[in-house]
């Protein structure tokens, strides 16, 4: 009987799964459009009353994205005021969409990687994920590792798409 050999394990491939960088903390969106007078302008007195009476505890331990989806000019101070009230409760406060927040979080984790740990490595950046990892995260990781690695592939170790190979 012939011994089964795991050629993938012997190949020296290093798999990086960006799914491991994904933040699974619940994310809530605070859309300031709900505070606009007639859907057009934000009135300071009304907004300050909202801030004073709002239940900020509902954001406890969650990531919160501050946005305004209405086509209106919302003063910068309104976002700052909301962020200030959220800070003691929220895990993280961010201006932008949940997708942009996720990209930011993953980027921070990519920034923490030491490229020297991957020097001359054969890297597979895992493609399939149960989370919607932003494409920008794949681009950022590729950009960071290209100067030091021997090769970068995308996909699964048993079925990859070549991205880069040092000459």
Plain-language structure description:
With 167 residues, this protein is of the alpha/beta class. The protein folds into two domains: 83 residues, no CATH class; 64 residues, no CATH class. It is built from five helices and seven strands, in the order αββαβαβαβαββ. The strands form two sheets. Strands 1-5-6-7 form a four-stranded mixed beta sheet. A three-stranded parallel beta sheet has the order 2-3-4, covered by helices on one side. Helix 4 packs parallel to helix 5. The longest helix is centred in the middle third of the chain and has 15 residues.
Labels describing this entry:
single chain, 167 residues, alpha/beta, 2 domains, four-stranded mixed β-sheet, three-stranded parallel β-sheet, 5 helices, 31% helix, 22% strand
Main sheet makeup: 4 strands, mixed
Number-wise, the strands total 7
How many whole angstroms does the radius of gyration measure?
Answer: 22 Å
Q: Which regions have little confidence, pLDDT < 50, spanning 5+ residues? A: 5-10
Percentage of residues in helical conformation: 25-40%
Order of strands across the biggest sheet?
1-5-6-7
Count up the domains.
Answer: 2
Blueprint (SSEs and pairs):
Elements: H1 7-10, E1 13-16, E2 27-31, H2 44-53, E3 63-67, H3 76-86, E4 92-95, H4 98-112, E5 122-126, H5 135-145, E6 151-156, E7 159-165
Parallel strand pairs: 1-5, 2-3, 3-4, 5-6
Antiparallel strand pairs: 6-7
Helix pairs in contact: 4-5
